[in-house]
Amino acid sequence: MHSLYWRIFRSFWLAIVLILVGTVTVAVSAAIQRRDAEPWVQRGQLFAQAADAFENGGPDALRAWLDDMATDPAFKRIFVVGPNGRDLLDRPLPHFLQVPVEGRTKTGKKTVRSGAIAPIGGALVLMTPDGRTYHVIVGPLHEHPLIFGELELPAVAAATLAIALAVSTIICFFLTRHLVAPIDRLRQATREVAAWNLSVRMLPRLKGRQDDLALLAADFDTMAERVQTLLETKQQLLRDVSHELRSPLTRLQLALSLARRQDGGTERQLARIACEADRLEQLIARTLKLVRLERQASASQGVNVDVGTLLQTIVQDVAIEAEARNCTVSVEADAGLQVAGDPELLRSAFENVIRNAVRYGPSGSVVAVSAARREGIEVTVRDRGPGVPEKDLKLIFEPFYRVDAARDRAGGGEGLGLAIAARAIGVHGGTIEAHNLAEGGLEVAMRLPALQPGRQEASAAAAQAA
Questions:
Q1: Which terminus of the chain faces fewer neighbouring Cβ atoms within 10 Å, N or C?
Q2: Beta strands, E only, 282-395
Q3: Would residue 342 count as lying in a domain?
Q4: pLDDT tens, 199-256?
Q5: Region at 336 (left for phi over 0; alpha for psi -120 to 50; beta for the rest)
Q6: What is the rounded distance in angstroms from the CA atom of residue 411 to the CA atom of residue 269?
Q7: Residue 290 pLDDT more than 90?
Q8: Cα–Cα distance between 340 and 449 in angstroms, integer?
Q9: Does any domain span residue 244?
Q10: Are 448 and 376 in contact (CB under 8 A)?
């Protein structure tokens, strides 16, 4: 019930109800006034006609006048009661002229005394020379007021229009304020964001609203937060890139300076220069690769890749580095795990994660690599290293981000390996996440969509035919 639709719906019907209540009130008041006023005007005219007929012709002329009134709408309300207590035209008298007497019929109704009429104010009494009296009685217009007929009166129509305008103006004013006020705040917040005030948030300004505008404010806050995070990440990226590029350049300049000063140690300094130049080239190449992955929406190639075979190849390549650190890399992969994608990108993703685990694993530990089918294909890499602080688990996949303990180059690389792995997995429609193990160490899980069964069978058939 917090939707704007229901708020507008309730406001619409509230306006209609108020207009109807006001219109009915005005119409009832007008009807009551007409009921109280008009009968007396008509009654005076009818009394004058009856008296004129009686003076000119007596009771017979009075009866003839009553007969002539038969075509008039007021005929049903005009009664002339003679000395015998009956109407001159022998019509039954209405209930307000009948006199109840003591005694009841078998059905329980009160009996009426013949030859008597109830006293009623405003009756015209006509008397003959011999003393006989005739009562001319005009009944009320209606027993109940006619409401809707009064709507035709100009005063009632004008009052109804005024009520409708007043109610609709008030309802629209408050409804507009209710809708436009948060929109104005949102426009102001948008201007603040455009002025690079990315800390602005909309939802606290709406004071607990829970309608569609509150959902829009929540989306705006999410967008502002993501833009702020992105901007801060890009600024950190620029700082890290400048730092990573400045370090090898500084060492290159130092090596050149030493080479110029020393007469016989140029070979060692040239080797140092070549090593730093190679590191610089690798850094630039990995940075460019990351930029290409950022722009790539999906894997450009649709080659079928066997995950188990690819992992075995990577582990063989990493074995030399693992032996240097006195570590062991084990692989357990189910058979028939195939994905569609770019083999080089997948290799880069898996290799970066495995090499990162070997780099941070303690001497004599085992890096466990496994692959299984779980709602797709899941590849996990577990190490026995120090793990990562909980606040950094999501940040380790950002470019050039390194945990504080690994900021020096002796403990960690330049912070591009896991970022490249995350982008490569994302290009293949997969996800990557990391969490600390209870027994110590870090686990990185990479999930990829599995190859469709029909396509997998076609690939196997093509391989057998070849």
A1: C
A2: 303-306, 328-333, 338-341, 366-373, 377-382
A3: yes
A4: 888 877 777 677 778 888 888 888 888 888 877 777 766 666 666 666 677 777 777 7
A5: left
A6: 24
A7: no
A8: 8
A9: no
A10: yes
> What's the structural domain count of the chain?
2
Angle between helices 343-360 and 417-427 (to 10 degrees): 150
> In CATH, what number is assigned to the domain containing residue 9?
3.30.450
If you search the block for the tokens 């948030």, which residue do you land on? Answer: 201
Q: Where in the sequence is the domain holding 80, given as residue range(s)?
A: 4-105+113-149
Q: Among 126, 149, 172, give the residue marking a domain's end.
A: 149
Decide if 398 is inside a domain.
yes
How many Å apart are CA 445 and CA 64, to the nearest integer?
112
**Surface-to-core class of residue 182, CB atoms within 10 Å of its CB (0-12 exposed, 13-18 middle, 19+ buried):** buried
pLDDT digits over 123-173, tens only? 788 888 888 888 888 776 544 444 455 555 666 677 777 888 888 888 888
Instruction: Write the CATH number for 328.
Output: 3.30.565.10
Strands (E), 270-317: 303-306
How far is the C-alpha of 414 from the C-alpha of 249, rounded, in Å?
15
> Does residue 347 sit within a domain?
yes
Tokens of 222: 């999410």
Question: What length does the chain have?
Answer: 466
- Mention every residue, 6+ apart, whose C-beta is less than 8 A from residue 15: 167, 168, 171
77: left (phi over 0), alpha (psi -120 to 50) or beta: alpha
